[in-house]
Amino acid sequence: MRAVVTARALAEWHPLRRVAVRPPGLEAFFGLLEPYTSLYERVFSLAKARREHDELVHTLRTGFGVQVANLDELLLQAAGRRPEVARELIDRVLDAVDFHGPGSERAKREFRENVRLLDREQLLQTLVLSPSLRFVRTRGTRSVASFTTLRVPLTNLFFLRDQQAVTDRGIVIGRLAKPQRRRETEITAFVWRSAGERPVAAVERGTFEGGDFLPAGEFALIGTGDRTNATGVQEVLASGVGFPEVGVVHQPRHPLLPTPDPMVNMHLDTYLNFPGDGVAVGQREMLAEARVEVYLREGGKYHRSRETRLLPYLEHDHHFQVVGISTLEQLCYATNFLTIQDRRIVVPDVGRNAERVLANLRRSAERHPARYGRLYLRAAREFSQLRAEGRFFPNKPEMRDLGLDATQVTLENLTGAYGGAHCLTATLERS
Q1: Which helix (H) or strand (E) holds 44?
Q2: pTM (two decimals)
Q3: Mean pLDDT of 204-233
């Protein structure tokens, strides 16, 4: 079966046609037992997070007519149509489970014989959880105790933006920076290939995450820092994009932090996004701080042209009007919105997120006052002012003056895992 590549995006403000999502599953339950190592910001309600995800999907489908595909369903539908995909799915499930100790060979043999009897949810959850069973024999007939360990379950797989980026050429498979997330691209690449949309490129040596990529028509931005490194950027430039110009944005340190904290602005889309043609939303201090290397495409290859800063690059070089947001709004995922079409966005309810984010920041400031004290004091002042004036993003005069229309969705639990509407959706087609 020949793949027909339709996944493509030239600009964040082009009409959104198709996205893929994956609701948080059982893996998130285990992630919430210890949020720090799971790369979550704070503890949250999994049941409420699932309802929030349902609300986001409902908004996209019924409010805007976007085709929303479920990642698991894409794979299962492909397995139902194509025997070779079904066989590969079974093989991957078999590889995902380890057996150790007395009787392990028997258990492995029986699992191999019975794996086809597992229901669809069991197959997929086994891939995500990657369990390891250890057997301990005690006295008595069939007295064998089994201990199950999950080998780094994929607790962030529901953030479906990061495993890949969709560029002007198609799907580019990334390589995630954190070991906790590294296996995610094995699953997503398998799904895209099985669904008939073969990726056009894959990062293999460096690291690259989709939250660090923003297409903008005549140019594109690629963020580099904690999650995407220089080697990954060069791999993407070599075969993943064809824009006439690419700005490589170096992750800035927040001006109120004495030392960098990459989780404050983990990806480019956590402090910058494009809601419309010629319009950007961002935290101006970080935009002014961020260094940009400008690459021009000539003769089929990119060549470094010059260096500048992100704010003048947007305002002066490309004539974007930049709507500034406060430090608190940036921490509440104000820029992690999903643009539906030119000047129309779906955005997390920043005001609802603010109290939880501020409380979490206060605890960090109490534990590490020298590092987070100034950041917390600024955010606390902004909270009082924004609440009194009712001007939490997107409720700003600049937004109204530019004709920007925003639909707010409740994501106060899902943002506890460090991401908003943009992070939760893998764009497949903009046209």
Answers
A1: none
A2: 0.95
A3: 98
